[in-house]
Every structure is written in structure tokens, then in C-alpha cells.
Write a structure and sequence with these properties.
Shape: elongated
Number of domains: 3
Number of helices: 19
Strand content: under 5%
Helix content: over 70%
Radius of gyration: 48 Å
Length: 469
């Protein structure tokens, strides 16, 4: 099917491609922002620079409790690594870690989207490492002097840094605004794009209103209602609709397969129903026309007894008369010469039948020599009659007097047809039979549609569309 192109696409193709490219970039930023929280662990692991740059945009800071916990672990590592570390300082750090570990088992410290899962995994790893049945006992056991000396503090702290520390570092806290909403400065990044889209949309509305003065400003704006999604500061994911349509209109995205499949789904689901409703409506309109006597009025070429007709009826009568004259000319000039031998045979047979009924003719025709003469007479007579009829009809086409007689014949024929239809309930019987036939056709039409279904209708439509293409 032909792709619709608006005024802007036809007159400013380069500008439209630039705006579509900007919209595509904006849509990519929108999806990046919408998915950043859930994909932050991936960015943090593989592209930490993205996290460092974008965390402030989302108001993300290190969680104060886990950050304090990490600071205390780092202080312990430094104390254990120092050559002249005091035992009292190490004991103080271990005691602080056991105290800081208690909220990890009793409070919801992990506030990230998968925080509960991360905390449960952390606790299970520590329980398996220490062999303790509860998380609190596992923390107390791990941060004890006896356990670290027995297992070796180097190996245990290496386990902590490789297995436990990533969960603590992944935990964060989102700052809250005065309205109680999480801090989000993405609108500052989005604002330049929205301004560009706003200028473009206003320009389109102004141009549409100028080219169609009968449209109000609201109606002109609703001509491209989907562009308004580009201006919304919320539900930004809906921008995929106007962006996809803009890319499609400037040939940067092929949506033809999707559009064709969507149309096919519509045809399959409602096409058969629409075809059924339309077909039934047409048949019922024909039945109604027959009940009102309109159809047979056309068949009888309008009742000649009625002297007053509307303009439509007069035009209809003129057209029907012209059609009848054309059929008459075609019949005389083209059809009659082809069937003339059959007409002669029919006339000859009629003459023979008539002569057979004359008294004494059968005996006379059997006399020697008269049989051949009788045959020649019948052939000559039938040929003369057929030729005379053909000559009469052909000469009537060029003879004004014959043309007048033919017109009178047509008028009288219409009168005779109308009179015949009005007698002996002939018209009512014909109308009733036509209505009954249409009723049977309607039932068969609905049955056929039900058997065929929308799928075959869609296939046939697609085949015809390809043949046209």
C-alpha cells in the first residue's frame, strides 16, 4: 500500500530526518534512564565509569550503614597488616564489627531492588563459611579473634573481600526530595530534547492550521496526537510510538511487515463479521426495494400511466431508453445475421407444418416431380421471409418513419409490461418469489462466510494485493 507522507515529510525531508534522529537519541537516553536502576550492578561490574557519572543524576549515594561497616573492615585490615599493631585496637575493631553486624540480621539495610536477595545470599555464604546455624552467630564467629587466628586472618579477609564485600558495595541509598520522591535529575538532560520537540510540534500545528483554516487549534494539534507523548515529563516510555512513526515516515525504519500483520489480524478478527454485516445489509436493502415495488418499476421501465416523474425518474427513463435502442441496434446489425440460418430453418419448418394441414396437400406433394418443387418452394419462401424481416429491421434504423414506429412500439411495450404486472397478482407473486430467493441467498451467504472464515479472506486479499502490485 502507498505510504502516507505529511506536508512536512514532503517539503522538509532533511529537517524531518534530523528531528527523527534527535528523537531516536532521546528515546535511547529514556530507555537507559528507565533501566539504569535494574542494570546498575551490570554497569558497576563492567563499566564503573558509567556508575560514577550517572549515580548523581539518580541521587544515588553509598548507604550510610554499609559504608560505615566497610570503613570499619578497612580499619581492621590496616591494623592487622601493621607490624606493631596493638591487640586492644584489633579487639575494639572486632567488637565494633560484631555490633555493626547486628542490623544486617534484624533490619532492612539493603534498599536496592534486589536487596533482600543480596542480604540472604550474603548471610548464607557466611553461615557456610563458619558453620553456624544463624546469621548473627555467623557474624559473631567470623569477627572473633579465636576464629581469625585459627583459620588465618589473611585467608578469611580474602574470602570477605571476594565473596562478601561486593554485596556491601552494591548497596546504595537514594536521596529524597522535599516532596518525598527519590531525587531524579534526568529532566535536566531531557529538557533540551523536549524544547526541540515542542518547537517542532508548535510549528507543525501552526502550519496545519494555516493550510486548513477551518480547523481549530485543538483539531490541528490532534492531527498528530501521538507527538504529544514527546512532551510528557512522565510515562516517557510511550515516546517509542511517535519516534517509531517518525522513523518510519522518513524511511529510517521499516514497519511494513508489522503494519501488514496488524492489518491481517484486524481482517481475520473482524473482516468476516464486517463482510457478513455488509452483505446482509445489501441483501435486505434489495428486499426492501422489492417490497416497495421499486425493482419492478425499473423492470417495467417506469409506469407509463404516471404522468409526473421526478428528475431522477426522468433521467432513469432516458438512460433505459438509450440502452434499449443500443441493444436493438446491436441485435439487428450483429446478432441477427448470425442466427439468420436458424430463423430460416424455423420458418421453413413452420411453413411445412402449415401445408401439412391443408386438405389434399399430403397426396399432392407425393406425386412425381411435385415433391422436389414443394421443397424448393418452402426453402425459397422461408428465405424470402427471413430476408424480408432482416431488411425491414435494418432499414428501420435509417428510416425516420420506422424509427418513430419503433419508439411507439417501445412505449406500448412498456405499457403492456406494466399492465401485465398489475393483473392477477402477478407483480406480488414475482416480488414474493424474489424476496424468498434473496432470503435463501442471505442464509447461504452467511453460511459460506462462516465456513471460509477471516483467515481465508485475509489470504485472498493478500494475493489480490500482490497481483495488483
Amino acid at each position: 500500500m502507498v505510504k502516507f507522507r505529511s506536508y512536512f515529510e514532503r517539503h522538509y525531508p532533511k529537517l524531518e530526518r534530523i528531528i527523527a534522529t534527535i528523537a531516536l537519541i532521546n528515546l535511547g537516553l529514556v530507555f537507559f534512564d528507565l533501566s539504569y536502576i535494574s542494570l546498575r550492578p551490570v554497569y558497576r561490574q563492567y563499566t564503573p565509569v558509567v556508575v560514577r557519572i550517572y549515580d548523581p543524576v539518580k541521587g544515588i549515594v553509598s548507604h550510610p550503614q554499609t559504608e560505615a561497616y566497610q570503613d570499619q573492615v578497612n580499619a581492621l585490615i590496616q591494623q592487622l597488616a601493621a607490624p606493631n599493631s596493638e591487640r586492644s585496637q584489633v579487639e575494639t575493631s572486632l567488637s565494633s564489627l560484631r555490633s555493626l553486624s547486628q542490623p544486617l540480621t534484624t533490619e532492612r539495610v539493603f534498599t536496592t531492588p534486589n536487596g533482600d536477595h543480596s542480604l540472604a545470599t550474603l548471610q548464607q555464604l557466611l553461615q557456610q563459611r563458619t558453620g553456624q546455624p544463624s546469621p548473627q552467630a555467623a557474624f559473631d564467629q567470623f569477627w572473633s579473634t579465636e576464629y581469625l587466628n585459627q583459620q588465618g586472618w589473611q585467608s578469611e579477609l580474602a574470602f570477605w573481600n571476594s565473596q562478601i564485600r561486593p554485596y556491601l558495595e552494591a548497596n546504595y541509598f537514594r536521596q529524597i526530595t522535599g516532596l518525598g520522591m527519590p531525587v531524579d535529575y534526568f529532566w535536566l538532560i531531557d529538557l533540551p530534547f523536549v524544547l526541540i520537540f515542542g518547537i517542532d510540534i508548535v510549528n507543525r500545528i501552526r502550519m496545519s492550521h494555516r493550510r486548513n483554516p477551518h480547523l481549530s487549534w485543538v483539531e490541528a494539534a490532534l492531527r498528530r496526537w501521538y507527538d504529544l507523548f514527546l512532551l510528557l515529563p512522565f510515562w516517557r516510555g510511550l515516546r517509542v510510538l511517535p519516534v517509531a512513526l517518525r522513523l518510519y515516515q522518513v524511511d529510517m525504519l521499516n514497519l511494513e511487515p508489522l503494519r501488514a500483520e496488524a492489518q491481517r489480524d484486524v481482517v481475520v478478527t473482524v473482516g468476516a463479521d464486517i463482510a457478513g454485516i455488509a452483505g446482509i445489509e445489501i441483501i435486505e436493502q434489495m428486499q426492501s426495494s422489492i417490497r416497495q415495488g421499486e425493482l419492478l418499476d425499473w423492470v417495467s421501465w417506469i409506469d407509463p400511466d404516471v404522468t409526473t416523474h421526478s428528475e431522477v425518474e426522468i433521467v432513469a427513463e432516458e438512460e433505459i431508453t438509450a440502452i434499449a435502442n443500443q441493444l436493438y441496434i446491436v441485435g439487428v446489425q450483429d446478432i441477427l445475421p448470425q442466427v439468420q440460418p436458424d430463423i430460416e430453418d424455423l420458418v421453413q419448418h413452420s411453413i411445412a407444418q402449415t401445408l401439412e394441414q391443408l386438405p389434399g396437400y399430403p397426396k399432392t406433394s407425393g406425386l412425381p416431380g411435385l415433391e422436389q418443387l414443394s421443397t424448393q418452394i418452402k426453402q425459397g419462401l422461408s428465405h424470402s421471409l427471413a430476408q424480408g424481416l432482416y431488411h425491414t429491421l435494418t432499414s428501420s434504423l435509417a428510416d425516420p418513419k420506422a424509427e418513430e414506429i419503433t419508439a411507439r412500439l417501445q412505449h406500448n411495450l412498456r405499457a403492456a409490461v406494466a399492465q401485465a404486472l398489475s393483473q392477477h397478482n402477478t407483480r406480488q407473486n414475482i416480488e414474493q418469489r424474489l424476496i424468498s430467493a434473496l432470503e435463501k441467498f442471505k442464509l447461504n451467504y452467511v453460511k459460506t462466510l462462516a465456513e471460509v472464515g477471516g483467515e481465508q479472506l485475509a489470504d485472498r486479499t493478500e494475493i489480490l494485493r500482490k497481483q495488483i502490485s
